[in-house]
Amino acid sequence: MISLFAGRIADTGVDPIPFMTESVKKAAAKPNCEVLWASTRELINIYQAEGCGCQIITVPNNILAKRKNIGNDPYEVSLDTVRGFAKDIASLGFHILP
Asked: In Å, how far are 11, 54, 61, 65 from 17, measured between CA atoms?
């Protein structure tokens, strides 16, 4: 098992994808060797791990809960976020100047 902490690599500002892809290639030459994507930080990491060919990915429950957003229109998600901010601002008695 080759376990790479992809999220921790990304936390340094470095793209973990090349490390993961290279590890998958090296593991393929070894019998019974698999690559594990650890330290998942975002839902997209699941797709990235799959794209790299990782056999295993550890995913925390809070990231899995975000699956409900898959397929939603990114524009609408952003607009809903802005609406939420506007509601919070109004509830505090403030307003945004035009």
From this structure: 13, 11, 23, 23
